[in-house]
Design brief:
The structure holds two protein chains of two kinds. By secondary structure, chain A is an alpha/beta fold. Chain A is built from 13 helices and nine strands. Chain A starts with 13 loop residues before the first helix and ends with a helix. Chain B folds into two domains: about 20-50 and about 90-195, 3-Layer(aba) Sandwich (Rossmann fold), CATH 3.40.50.1100; about 60-85 and about 205-390, Rossmann fold (3-Layer(aba) Sandwich), CATH 3.40.50.1100. Classes of the chains: A alpha/beta, B alpha/beta. The structure holds pyridoxal-5'-phosphate.
Chain lengths: ~270, ~400
């Protein structure tokens, strides 16, 4: 915490390179590491890259995922039963950059990171080729005041969420603190809902678009098919599919079904 | 206040507001408004009136004579069990419903463990004519069935929390998820001094009436404002914080917080947070919680549903760390015995939660002149089934 502010030393990571070269229809996939089984994280990532996903969010499980709906709650519970821990995940990820080139984010709740040690977590993730982190329960004040140097020093992008209720002032501040993209929620909801386009939500997307933020925006929560993906891409640079993909992982022969799944979104 | 919260919601290293962005607008609105509202004279007048005429405050400070003889000190019970709805939880529920009304909220959600907070919340919602949804772990619904019926009769909807350990922490998760999905018109009445800032401070203020009254009542009984000891049980810690609040700055008053050891601190079936926990984040605040080395929350155990929680409020974590209060633990067996003893020596059937505080008396050494106040946080009606089964009556 006594480190010099190091925004200066920040260099482009894979996320920045991706957003510099591709501005539309970016497709990201979320899945929970350790679900349906251990030692599948890199296999799934490789298959998703081959199938055409642009970047990935690898969830690490937590016992009390308050921002998640039943599908991701279940995958987290099962992953924990299977024995997934941050230590184990990092072990699986030692192979990551031998097999996968697209940007990878880790997504999970704050307490497991805090126990692992925040600085140690950031170092380890960066070392393995992770590009960013999404920690839904690490809000802006706590991030900025207490932890941001560890992220910045390790060239990890911290991704903030924005909802229709987030004020414009706060969005500006989030834009300032972000250095890869901003995660727009289509509504204030937990994961696993479905995108409903009401007038007020379109107004919200338009309002964000009109703000001309310096960071790209990606829409998440409730994206589950071609229609919702296409709609989201009208207002943002891309979208994230989570629960729908986690459901696919519950099916037999899911590895073979990944290419068709990705095709069906686009 | 020396031990109070700072402007960012921290007590030393503990507290803060570790919440997803979806909860930020609601929590921020509260943070900006809560002090203005609760310091407003109209609010105070309405709060005081309801506490007096609806809850039945001040609750008596009872000099327990047979207990005093037995333990060799002046033992006083602060009778929160005599409040309307049977526990201290109503103090906070009244405060928060008045606040919710002033914030223009149309719908109330709450979590409950023993059901006492759920009943208190359902009660104040009936009083104000506001819709009420209470989340309760499936296991707790079974072991506190009378309170489920009471909530329903009061017009509340009780929704079972069937994820995780199916107890209080999971009910809290479900309530938080509900709040995320209802970001505009809903207020979440948290039942203890837990959760993101400003909840721990706000709930402590509403419960501080316990120690405010105690100080005055002690003068009547003893001629002195300050006792030697103050004892209370700790689930999340709201009755304890209310009981400690106005004594915190009086360093000579020894504060004793009693956690639930369940089948024993080292048995693997316990809820003794300060003994078994480590620093981390639970339900929006940095505190001490029971967890695995990998940061997964451990499922606690206590015979008492109200103490069956893997964390404590952040202010308690702070008081523990700086040694301003002493944290001890009492097993199921010790608590059940103490509940029976209080019934048969003082004619008061205490809640199993409160029985934990009573059991601590067995382990302490007093001087004859010591004044000792125990927060009798609730009555045992809801626990009769558990008592009867335990003692094979
Ligand atoms: C009678 C009684 N005492 C104590 C508690 C524990 O809560 P807290 O630690 O917030 O006082 C409860 C909780 O349900 C209760 O019903």
């Amino acid at each position: 915490m006594n480190n010099e502010p190091s925004t200066i030393s920040y260099t482009m990571n894979r996320l920045n390179q991706l957003f510099a070269s591709k501005k539309d229809n970016l497709l990201s996939i979320y899945y929970t590491a350790g679900y349906p089984a251990l030692n599948t994280t890199v296999d799934i990532a490789e298959a998703l890259e081959k199938a055409g996903a642009d970047f990935l969010e690898v969830g690490f499980p937590y016992s009390d995922p308050v921002a998640d709906g039943p599908t991701i709650q279940h995958s987290s519970e099962q992953a924990l039963i299977n024995g997934m821990t941050l230590d184990h995940l990092f072990e699986e990820l030692t192979e990551l950059r031998k097999r996968v080139t697209i940007p990878i984010l880790l997504m999970g709740y704050f307490n497991p990171i805090a126990q692992y040690g925040i600085e140690r977590f950031c170092k380890k993730a960066a070392e393995l080729g992770v590009d960013g982190v999404i920690v839904p329960d690490l809000p802006m004040y706590e991030y900025e005041a207490l932890y941001s140097t560890h992220f910045i020093n390790n060239n990890l992008s911290n991704i903030f969420l924005v909802t229709p209720q987030t004020s414009s002032d706060r969005i500006r501040k989030i834009d300032e603190l972000s250095n890869s993209f901003i995660y727009l929620l289509s509504s204030s909801s937990i994961t696993g809902g479905s995108l409903q386009l009401t007038n007020s939500i379109e107004d919200y997307y338009k309002r964000i678009k009109a703000m001309e933020l310096k960071n790209p925006t990606i829409i998440g929560f409730g994206i589950s098919d071609n229609a919702t993906f296409t709609k989201a891409c009208e207002y943002a640079n891309g979208a994230i599919v989570g629960s729908k993909f986690v459901k696919l992982l519950a099916e037999d022969g899911y590895m073979e079904k990944i290419p068709a799944f990705i095709q069906s979104m686009r | 206040m020396k031990y109070g919260v700072n402007e960012h919601g921290y007590y030393g290293d503990f507290g803060g507001a570790y919440i997803p962005e979806m909860l930020y607008p609601n929590v921020e609105e509260l943070r900006q408004q809560y002090l203005n509202i609760i310091n407003d004279p109209d609010f105070k007048a309405e709060f005081d009136d309801l506490l007096k005429n609806y809850v039945g405050r001040p609750s008596p400070l009872y000099h327990a004579k047979r207990y005093s003889e037995k333990y060799g000190a002046n033992i006083f019970f602060k009778r929160e069990d005599l409040n309307h709805t049977g526990s201290h939880k109503i103090n906070n529920a009244i405060g928060q419903i008045l606040l919710a009304k002033r914030l223009g909220k149309k719908r109330i959600i709450a979590e409950t463990g023993a059901g006492q907070h759920g009943v208190a919340t359902a009660t104040v919602c009936a009083l104000m004519g506001i819709e009420c949804v209470v989340y309760m772990g499936e296991i707790d619904m079974a072991r506190q069935a009378p309170n489920v019926s009471r909530m329903k009769m009061l017009g509340a909807t009780v929704r079972p929390a069937s994820s995780g350990s199916k107890t209080l922490k999971d009910a809290t998760n479900e309530a938080l998820r509900d709040w995320i999905a209802n970001p505009v018109d809903t207020h979440y009445i948290i039942g203890s001094v837990v959760g993101p800032y400003p909840y721990p401070d706000m709930v402590a203020r509403f419960q501080s009436i316990i120690s405010e009254e105690t100080k005055k009542q002690l003068v009547e009984h003893t001629g002195k404002e300050l006792p030697e000891y103050v004892l209370a049980c700790v689930g999340g810690g709201s009755n304890a914080m209310g009981m400690f609040y106005h004594f915190l700055d009086n360093e000579q008053v020894k504060l004793v917080a009693v956690e639930a050891a369940g089948k024993g601190v080292d048995s693997g079936h316990s809820a003794a947070t300060t003994f078994l926990g480590h620093e981390g984040v639970l339900h929006g605040s940095r505190t001490i919680l029971m967890q695995t080395p990998d940061g997964q929350v451990v499922e606690p155990y206590s015979i008492s549903a109200g103490l069956d929680y893997p964390g404590i409020g952040p202010q308690h974590a702070y008081l523990y760390k700086i040694n301003r209060a002493q944290y001890v633990s009492v097993t199921d067996d010790e608590a059940m015995k103490a509940g029976l003893l209080c019934s048969q020596m003082e004619g008061i059937i205490p809640a199993i939660e409160s029985s934990h505080a009573l059991a601590q008396l067995e382990k302490m050494k007093f001087n004859l002149t010591d004044n000792v106040v125990i927060c009798l946080s609730g009555r045992g009606d809801k626990d009769l089934d558990t008592f009867i089964k335990y003692f094979n009556y």
